[in-house]
């Protein structure tokens, strides 16, 4: 009989968890609804977009993209909160030997929640700033209509440069879309000190002026099916350092995998391959590879590290980088193309602003 009641209680709890719903009300006016297992149920993004149908197409596209990022952020928070509840339950029933393990997992989850909330505040600020700018523009008398790209750029860039068309693309590879579940850890301390210069002066080889910034984390990525195995750190971390050398812009990219055997799945980055930046307005900028460092294993950390130096495939594309918000970053691996979502949307804007100001 006791066993029967235990089973009945467990079944009842499971049913209630599945049927339960939770709503996350955002500052933007968006409502994100999840079920008891933190699975997505609904959002009113389309209603919010329809209310602003009078906006310029590019501005509306940026607004919708930011709302989508906000939605993904709230879904991540829902899963983290559920994880905390599970860890609390497990900790209460853990043996003395296992308690420290669960406490460590709790601390990691708390840090992830704090980081998630910081990302949310940043996204909310961008959305609110955009809405206020559009509302102000609607009240002003229309003298001359400005290009939509210029209006979008003013939200995050102090200096507006008219975008140029992308005239030259590398041969397009067939895209193998990865699971676009990416957590980008935006730390305010990093953003405040984002103008750290590691070299400024005459390059020894070229004898020409070079300014190189310290590398910063662009994004992190963990496939959904691997999240149970990577609870304390992310599967992939991509960092970038911008450089201005003899008037040209280069980018040092580091991809760090928390795996010793990743080359079996990803292969290598070839010098004939490319990397791609995609922006929220739909524009794409391709980077051609200048130098490739052979992947190597950091035995102490158990990480496989890839390093490449890239430059713009079309130098005119610098105007896109200086005015647009980054949406995703793609890499052509020898085994196929993968595209990673970026939450730190003004990452490139900040990097180039540092190079412009440090002359």
Walk me through what this model shows:
By secondary structure, the protein is of the alpha+beta class. The chain is built from 9 helices and 14 strands. It has helices at residues 2-19, 45-51, 57-93, 96-139, 148-154, 188-192, 263-266, 318-321, 347-357, and strands spanning 21-25, 31-35, 40-43, 182-183, 197-202, 209-213, 216-221, 236-245, 248-257, 274-279, 284-298, 303-312, 326-333, 336-341. It starts with a helix and ends with a helix.
Helix content: 25-40%
The separation of the N and C termini measures 80 Å
Which secondary-structure class do the elements indicate? alpha+beta
Radius of gyration, in Å, reads: 23 Å
> Main β-sheet, in a few words?
11 strands, antiparallel
Name the average pLDDT: 80
Q: What coarse outline follows from CA principal-axis ratios?
A: globular
The helix count comes to: 9
**What's the number of structural domains?**
2
Fraction of residues in β-strands: 25-35%
Chart the SSEs and their pairings:
Elements (H helix, E strand, L loop, with lengths): L1 H18 L1 E5 L5 E5 L4 E4 L1 H7 L5 H37 L2 H44 L8 H7 L27 E2 L4 H5 L4 E6 L6 E5 L2 E6 L14 E10 L2 E10 L5 H4 L7 E6 L4 E15 L4 E10 L5 H4 L4 E8 L2 E6 L5 H11 L2
Antiparallel strand pairs: 1-2, 2-3, 4-7, 5-6, 6-8, 7-8, 8-9, 9-12, 10-11, 10-13, 11-12, 13-14
Summarize, please:
This protein is an alpha+beta fold and 359 residues long.
Keyphrases for this structure?
disordered N terminus; 2 domains; three-stranded antiparallel sheet; 9 helices; eleven-stranded antiparallel sheet; 359 residues; alpha+beta
């Amino acid at each position: 009989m006791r066993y029967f009641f235990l089973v009945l209680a467990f079944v009842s709890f499971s049913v209630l968890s599945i049927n339960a719903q939770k709503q996350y009300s955002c500052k933007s006016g968006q409502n994100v609804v999840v079920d008891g297992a933190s699975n997505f149920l609904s959002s009113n993004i389309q209603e919010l977009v329809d209310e602003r149908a009078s906006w310029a197409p590019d501005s509306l596209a940026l607004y919708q993209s930011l709302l989508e990022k906000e939605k993904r952020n709230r879904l991540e928070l829902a899963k983290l909160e559920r994880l905390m509840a599970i860890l609390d339950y497990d900790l209460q029933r853990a043996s003395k030997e296992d308690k420290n393990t669960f406490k460590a997992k709790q601390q990691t989850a708390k840090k992830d929640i704090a980081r998630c909330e910081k990302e949310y505040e940043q996204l909310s600020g961008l959305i609110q700033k955009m809405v206020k700018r559009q509302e102000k523009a609607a009240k002003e008398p229309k003298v001359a209509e400005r290009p939509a790209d210029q209006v979008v750029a003013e939200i995050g860039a102090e200096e507006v440069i008219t975008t140029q068309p992308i005239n030259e693309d590398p041969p397009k590879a067939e895209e193998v879309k990865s699971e676009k579940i990416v957590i980008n850890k935006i730390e305010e301390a990093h953003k405040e000190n984002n103008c750290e210069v590691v070299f400024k002066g005459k390059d020894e080889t070229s004898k020409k002026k070079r300014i190189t910034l310290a590398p910063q984390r662009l994004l992190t990525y963990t496939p959904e099916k691997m999240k149970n195995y990577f609870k304390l750190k992310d599967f992939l971390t991509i960092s970038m350092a911008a450089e201005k050398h003899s008037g040209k812009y280069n980018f040092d990219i580091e991809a760090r995998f928390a795996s010793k055997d990743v080359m079996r799945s990803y292969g290598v980055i070839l010098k004939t391959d490319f990397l791609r930046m995609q922006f929220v307005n739909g524009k794409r900028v391709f980077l051609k590879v200048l130098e490739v460092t052979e992947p190597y294993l950091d035995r102490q950390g158990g990480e496989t590290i890839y390093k490449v130096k890239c430059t713009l495939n079309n130098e005119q594309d610098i105007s896109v980088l200086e005015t647009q918000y980054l949406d995703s970053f793609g890499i052509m691996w020898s085994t196929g193309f993968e595209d990673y979502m970026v939450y730190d949307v003004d990452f490139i804007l900040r990097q180039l602003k540092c190079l412009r100001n440090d002359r």
